Structures are given as C-alpha cells and as structure tokens.
Amino acid sequence: MNTREKILKAAREAFARKGFNGVSMEEIARAAGVKKALIYYYFPSKENLFEEVWTRTIDEIEENLFKEVENEKSYMRKLKKFLRSYIDFVTNKTVLMELIEKEKSSVVEEEKWENLRERYNGLLSKMANLIAEGKRYDAIYEDIDPIAAANLISSSITPKKKGMLNNILSMIMRGILKEK
Predict the structure, then answer these.
(1) What are the pLDDT digits (tens) for 91-110?
(2) Which of 45, 46, 62, 130 is least enclosed, having the fewest CB within 10 Å?
C-alpha cells in the first residue's frame, strides 16, 4: 500500500470512529505511520482529505450495490438482490457505513460540503430510480414516493445486527411492494 493509500485508510477509520470534527491531522498521521507534513503534501487541508474519503466511500457503496443488479432482467430479483447486497455491505463494511452514519447530517446540512452532498444525493437518486422502475413494472405501490423510499432504505439499514437488518428489509419490502 502506498503512502497516499495509508493516509486515506487511516483517515477513513478515524473519521468513522470520531467524526470530522473529532479527529486531528496529527491523529491521522500517527495512525498512518507518517509525519503530519506528509499528509499536507497529498491533501492541502483536512477538508480535502475528508472529501476524498467521502467520495471514495460513496463510490465503493455504489459499485458494490449497483454492479450486482445492472444486468438483472426481473425487477423483483433486481430489487431483492439490491437490498440483500445493501445488507451485506452494511454488515461487512462497517467502517464505511459508520463514516456515512456519523457524517451524513453534516454533509447534508453544512454549506461547505456542497460537492459531497451532491455525491450523496446521487447515490440516493440511483436508489430512487430503482424504486421508480418498480412502479413502471407495477411492482411498487403507485403512491410510494421513490425519493422517500430511498431515504427510508438508506437511513433504516445501518450497521446493526444482521437479523435485525433482515427484519427491517422484510418490513420495507412489505411496505412498498404490491402483493403478487
């Protein structure tokens, strides 16, 4: 692993554990095994470092979730694969999901994170498009708002026990899917 990647890995873990405001560049440097000045060589500021970590996190989530379903022909299998992939991702990539959970409200609310908010909203839009597709196939109730459903999925399926996640998944499926 090169130096830049070590810094990003240490930063991701630190931001997930303590949040953006709770961690210093010195702590990240210690965790990465580098001098603080070297972090600034790669990232001009803590904000730039966080932006890179956030963007990579969203990229990894999207790659894992949507790669699984892109070639699926049956909508029901596609939705089930997507939700199962989401649960697997949440339970297996806890550091990434803890980062999202810890910093999501800051990214969504604070002006300085406009680019990161757009990136996160892009993820939600992809999820909403999957729900809208289900409406076109008459598999999802017509009165379900795809954006609201995407927000429900993203906020209710967070790092918890896998059994609890499966129960949440079942409730979401029963709440949005028409009975067939």
Answers:
(1) 888 888 889 888 988 998 99
(2) 45
Which residue carries 């996190």 as its tokens?
57
- Our CA angle for 67, 123, 51, nearest 5°, is 110
Indicate the Cα dihedral angle 46, 151, 97, 44, nearest 10°.
Answer: -10
Q: What is the dihedral of CA 80, 84, 86, 91, to 10 degrees?
A: 170
The residues, ordered by sequence, that sit 6+ positions from 172 with a Cβ below 8 Å of its Cβ are: 83, 149, 152, 153, 156
Contact 128/147 with Cβ under 8 angstroms? yes
Secondary structure of 47-74 as H, E, C letters: HHHHHHHHHHHHHHHHHHHHHCCCCCCC
pTM for the whole structure = 0.86
Residue type at position 44: P
